[in-house]
Specification:
This protein has eight helices and eight strands. The chain has 288 residues and is of the alpha/beta class. It is globular, with a radius of gyration of 17 Å.
């Protein structure tokens, strides 16, 4: 396990990786806004992510599925998935970001959706090139994280419910599910919400200390409804990494789910910090 830790730690996350993350997020926003859950626009965004992942080396796939929606009828959703297998006998780490936008707002979703979707593309590329031993990886870009009215059984979290169910059906050994959301804010402070697997919280804090980022990470008391929840409900160890203060003044969140969620508020430096933190978490998980 020490070798796995050293191998993962050696991968790092470079400014060039952060540039790829930022460019991918910017292109997603420019070409595919809005991306309402389960719509043709979301499907086109999924195809964009599919192409972006494949262009860096890994093989992506699109998981197309239908689900009832609380507003009536059924919609077709599109998750994008990518597996990087180093040793099929080893446990898995699952990394998740939604790419859809809040319905009815004409929201660009630059930070809320695009930033971490671009980050996942860069992380998948980096891990594919390095192939750290001791862990396998699944990347999931989910459609339908955002609810249409309010979160309920058939409203919101469609993509993560689907991904968690598929993971359970495959009976894979999962060491951790890392949900990434809103990690491009220029004033980045990563919060670990209360509703996450307790055993993973010290892993994240240890990774933050190891990379000199402890001041960028805090334990939150709040409960957050995000894509990690369906994985928790299926019994997988899961945690959410999110910056939920995203606004014009400290403590406010007024850019969230609004037309103000634009790329000028997404910092390449924050994606660099977030990428370094995630790679450090992977190194810690490889040592368990």
């Amino acid at each position: 396990m020490l070798l796995a830790l050293l191998a993962a730690a050696a991968i790092g996350f470079s400014p060039a990786d952060a540039d790829l993350a930022h460019r991918t997020a910017a292109a997603l926003v420019e070409r595919h806004t809005p991306r309402d859950p389960g719509t043709v626009r979301a499907r086109n965004a999924a195809l964009f992510i599919f192409d972006a992942v494949n262009a860096t080396g890994p093989d992506a796939r699109i998981d197309r599925f239908e689900s009832a929606v609380a507003s009536g009828g059924r919609r077709t959703f599109h998750n994008v998935e990518c597996d990087i297998v180093t040793d099929a006998s080893q446990p898995w780490v699952v990394l998740v970001s939604h790419y859809d936008t809040k319905p009815g707002v004409e929201c660009p979703g630059a930070n809320d959706g695009a930033s971490t979707s671009g980050l996942l593309v860069a992380l998948a590329s980096r891990i594919y090139d390095a192939r750290p031993r001791g862990l396998n990886f699944r990347f999931v870009w989910t459609d339908g994280e955002e609810c249409i009215r309010s979160y309920a059984e058939n409203d919101g979290l469609w993509g993560s419910r689907r991904a968690a169910a598929r993971l359970a059906d495959q009976k894979l050994e999962v060491r951790a599910v890392l949900c990434l959301d809103m990690l491009g804010d220029t004033n980045l402070v990563v919060t670990i919400p209360h509703n996450g697997t307790d055993a993973l919280k010290p892993v994240v804090l240890a990774a933050a200390r190891r990379t000199g980022l402890r001041d960028r990470v805090r334990l939150g008391r709040e409960t957050v409804t995000d894509d990690h929840v369906p994985f928790l409900e299926r019994g997988f160890p899961a945690i959410d990494l999110i910056d939920f203060e995203y606004g014009g003044e400290p403590g406010r969140n007024d850019w969230w789910h609004s037309t103000s969620d634009t790329m000028d508020k997404v910092a390449k430096e924050s994606l660099f910090v977030s990428g370094r933190l995630v790679m450090a978490i992977i190194a810690e998980l490889g040592a368990l």
